[in-house]
Amino acid sequence: MKTEKVVLENETGLHARPASELAKLASKFKCNVKINANGKTIDAKSILSIMSAGVKAKTEIEIECDGEDEENAIKEIVEAFKNKFGE
Fold first, then answer.
1. Which of 10, 33, 57, 66 lies at a C-alpha separation of 20 to 30 Å from 85?
2. Rg (the chain; Cα; Å)
């Protein structure tokens, strides 16, 4: 299992577009991808789970990848957070 912490820099939090981008990115990997924020563990492959968590800007998020392609998954997902999902 690989974990890494990031701070959500998107000013509007994980709203519809970045939540959609995160779910799409996480879904391309075979490993389980979870994000831990605000005391909740969220399935990063589910856009509804991500949006219902209400993650706001400047929140510290722990990304957790567990499975056969966890190395690539965590690397790409952390990079997406750093790039603010293209916003």
1. 66
2. 11
